[in-house]
Amino acid sequence: MAAAAGAASAELVIGWCIFGLLLLAILAFCWVYVRKYQSQRESEVVSTITAIFSLAIALITSALLPVDIFLVSYMKNQNGTFKDWANANVSRRIEDTVLYGYYTLYSVILFCVFFWIPFVYFYYEEKDDDDTGKCTQIKTAFKYTFGFVVICALLLLVGAFVPLNLPDNKNSTEWEKVKFLFEELGSSHGLAALSFSISSLTLIGMLAAIIYTAYGMSALPLNLIKGTRSAAYERLENTEDIEEVEQHIQTIKSKSKDGRPLPARDKRALKQFEERLRTLRKRERHLEFIENSWWTKFCGALRPLKIIWGIFFILVALLFIISLFLSNLDKALHSAGIDSGFIIFGANLSNPLNMLLPLLQTVFPLDYILITIIIMYFIFTSMAGIRNIGIWFFWIRLYKIRRGRTRPQALLFLCMILLLIVLHTSYMIYSLAPQYVMYGSQNYLIESNITYDAHKGNSTLPVPKRCDADAPEDQCTVTRTYLFLHKFWFFSAAYYFGNWAFLGVFVIGLIVSCCKGKKSVIEGVDEDDSDLSDEEPSVYSV
């Protein structure tokens, strides 16, 4: 038994080492991603560090879901028995470690969303005013950030004192009711308060996923398949446009050769043509640079690989969308309704992902690889959606995300949106495979009667069965993720309706992406945008 415990401990140490290497890879990716998109003219150390840190927290939090599922599954054998080392104390320690990991990461997310990111954002908004000193910038940033802190405190208080259970005694005094609330808070160790706050942010993340992720799932694969327009062809068109605009300018100026002033209408037209000419010449410089760059030739050589990736991404998107549709339809037909949050513990309608995961569980670690791929795909399509749509406040475009030309404030917005979307990712995965997210690959033993024809006798044998909602609590361990997901039924109901909206936006985005032509090789340069510069473009902007 000691040897088995030692081997298990060694395997866990190896697992945590792999997780540590994954963290280093995440930090490296975040650094490259932020440096790739941030403006070279307006880059700031504090905003860069904040963006890298926030993006890393988002990716690390998403990586905790497969780790959580793996740990609860790893404690049991496939025959339904616990492993020799997985006694009650060890199991509790593992559960507490994962729970504290969620506590830490979710607390950091609350800190980033409600304090650090707003503070850095408002600090740099004040920095745009040259007449403002450092102390004034900090005071103003704190003043606006205080509003976010108040909202966070209110969410924590509401979540802490909304009882999930009612007192048994209907005739309780007011003091007994208050005492009951504090006992509930103490027994949950603040889980309800944190869960309510995180669920509130997840609700916002759901809206962001509906807007950005659903569109990104259709736009990213089709953009990879269609590619971009030829730089040489665009340059030829641009040259023709320059000649046409120059002719218009000469025609208007010829009207004042005899010294007569131009009418107001011609002056306005002349100003518009001159602005248009400046934009076209800027496009000319960008197109010439990109046409002659080695990066364009390298991307051209990778064109078949991009098409393959595009086909792969669209297949993953279809797997995700079909599974989500069948899962939501299952909830609509077989759940207890809106009062229960449309929660179901089994699968009456099988979906492709729900059928695929049990098959992959037989070969370790294919199921965890698939879950990780879906999570990372969810995040990358969210990034693609934000890049394509930009950051809007209702009908007003605030910022655009462009390679090498993104302002610090836009990067902070990008990271905050990704933080919120990642929170919603766990519920999306649960919607696709509820039983798998709750129990992983755990089995438990049930007594089964077996009849022997030869001796006309019966015997009872323990038979392994997949863990589900009917399993005894001491036989199956629920993932810590599930505890955070379903504390409050009304959030689950909102997520259910959000899934239908997600499906609708995906279909609309797919139609729009199919109808749109190829993207310009320098998309965004022809627009009047504060994120753009007249400096020489980066070769990586293709």
Automatic annotation (TrEMBL):
<dbReference type="GO" id="GO:0005765">
    <property type="term" value="C:lysosomal membrane"/>
</dbReference>
<feature type="transmembrane region" description="Helical">
    <location>
        <begin position="100"/>
        <end position="124"/>
    </location>
</feature>
<keyword id="KW-0846">Cobalamin</keyword>
<keyword id="KW-0170">Cobalt</keyword>
<keyword id="KW-0472">Membrane</keyword>
<feature type="transmembrane region" description="Helical">
    <location>
        <begin position="368"/>
        <end position="398"/>
    </location>
</feature>
<feature type="transmembrane region" description="Helical">
    <location>
        <begin position="307"/>
        <end position="326"/>
    </location>
</feature>
<feature type="transmembrane region" description="Helical">
    <location>
        <begin position="488"/>
        <end position="512"/>
    </location>
</feature>
<dbReference type="GO" id="GO:0031419">
    <property type="term" value="F:cobalamin binding"/>
</dbReference>
<feature type="transmembrane region" description="Helical">
    <location>
        <begin position="191"/>
        <end position="215"/>
    </location>
</feature>
<feature type="transmembrane region" description="Helical">
    <location>
        <begin position="410"/>
        <end position="430"/>
    </location>
</feature>
<dbReference type="InterPro" id="IPR050854">
    <property type="entry name" value="LMBD1_LysCbl_Transport"/>
</dbReference>
<keyword id="KW-0813">Transport</keyword>
<keyword id="KW-1133">Transmembrane helix</keyword>
<feature type="transmembrane region" description="Helical">
    <location>
        <begin position="46"/>
        <end position="67"/>
    </location>
</feature>
<feature type="transmembrane region" description="Helical">
    <location>
        <begin position="144"/>
        <end position="164"/>
    </location>
</feature>
<keyword id="KW-0458">Lysosome</keyword>
<dbReference type="GO" id="GO:0061462">
    <property type="term" value="P:protein localization to lysosome"/>
</dbReference>
<keyword id="KW-0812">Transmembrane</keyword>
<comment type="subunit">
    <text>Interacts with ABCD4; this interaction induces the translocation of ABCD4 from the endoplasmic reticulum to the lysosome. Interacts with ABCD4 and MMACHC; this interaction ensures the transport of cobalamin from the lysosome to the cytoplasm. Interacts with INSR, adapter protein complex 2 and clathrin heavy chain.</text>
</comment>
<dbReference type="GO" id="GO:0007369">
    <property type="term" value="P:gastrulation"/>
</dbReference>
<dbReference type="InterPro" id="IPR006876">
    <property type="entry name" value="LMBR1-like_membr_prot"/>
</dbReference>
<feature type="transmembrane region" description="Helical">
    <location>
        <begin position="12"/>
        <end position="34"/>
    </location>
</feature>
<keyword id="KW-0306">Gastrulation</keyword>
<dbReference type="Pfam" id="PF04791">
    <property type="entry name" value="LMBR1"/>
</dbReference>
<comment type="similarity">
    <text>Belongs to the LIMR family. LMBRD1 subfamily.</text>
</comment>
<keyword id="KW-0217">Developmental protein</keyword>
<protein>
    <recommendedName>
        <fullName>Lysosomal cobalamin transport escort protein LMBD1</fullName>
    </recommendedName>
</protein>
